[in-house]
Amino acid sequence: NAGVTQTPKFQVLKTGQSMTLQCAQDMNHNSMYWYRQDPGMGLRLIYYSASEGTTDKGEVPNGYNVSRLNKREFSLRLESAAPSQTSVYFCASREAANYGYTFGSGTRLTVV
Amino acid sequence: RKEVEQDPGPFNVPEGATVAFNCTYSNSASQSFFWYRQDCRKEPKLLMSVYSSGNEDGRFTAQLNRASQYISLLIRDSKLSDSATYLCVVNPRWGNYQLIWGAGTKLIIKP
Fold first, then answer.
1. Other residues' Cβ atoms within 10 Å of the Cβ of residue A56
2. By CA distance, what is B48's nearest residue in A?
3. Touching A: B residues 41-60, CB under 8 Å
4. How confident is the model at residue B95 (pLDDT cuts 50, 70, 90)?
């Protein structure tokens, strides 16, 4: 089915470990996004890529890096995981700036 | 004041009833608005965009009140399957990539 695919679905990391969350979309969307969702809070934008070859910081970029590998793929890297990064991470894409998002199914990350 | 505020609920509503909830936003220049639905432990899914003239999609009606800076969602003839968290999303500038999300209103439909 067309959509946004995220891997892994679940991950437990120890403090200080690194990992990369993968995201791919097959809808030919230009823009892609990484959000985190914490209990009682709205989704917060970590990084986004308005188009292939560009990336920009969102509201909460500290501790993260991203790579827009090509039009389909947008990865999120945690270089040195901290317990404060325990969250649910969603990747999303959309056709243009004023359209709605299509989200991946999320990655539940726990940092101990 | 948060940029986008929603009553967290939960709203407990009997099946078949009509329920409405609002979302207020602080930036009067905000350009576009959306309602998303999120089921427990799932990703958000677009429910509907909110247009200035109001719009309806089956049992769902969304309205925008720019003067009072809020959007509303009305659900008629509620179904058990409507139980979810409803997220309000605001785009503060036309063409902007950084949308502002509310924390959501939880709706529970009871038989």
1. 13
2. A100
3. 42-46, 49
4. low
Asked if the C-beta of A1 comes within 8 angstroms of chain B's C-beta atoms, the answer is: no
Q: How far apart are CA B88 and CA B37, in angstroms?
A: 9
Q: Are A80 and A29 in contact (CB under 8 A)?
A: no
pLDDT digits 0-9 by tens, B62-82: 999 999 999 999 999 999 999
Each residue's pLDDT tens digit, A36-69: 999 878 899 999 999 999 999 999 999 999 999 8
Closest residue of B to A96, CA-based? B95
Number of H helices, E strands in chain A: 0, 11
Burial, A35: exposed, middle or buried (Cβ in 10 Å; 0-12, 13-18, 19+)?
buried
Q: What are phi and psi of A12, to 5 degrees?
A: -115, 125
Q: Read out DSSP for B72-86?
A: EEEE-S--GGG-EEE
Looking at the partner chain, which of A97, A102, A104 has a beta carbon nearest the beta carbon of B97? Answer: A97
Cα–Cα distance, B63 to B59 (Å, whole number): 13
Question: Do the Cβ atoms of B111 and B13 come closer than 8 Å?
Answer: no
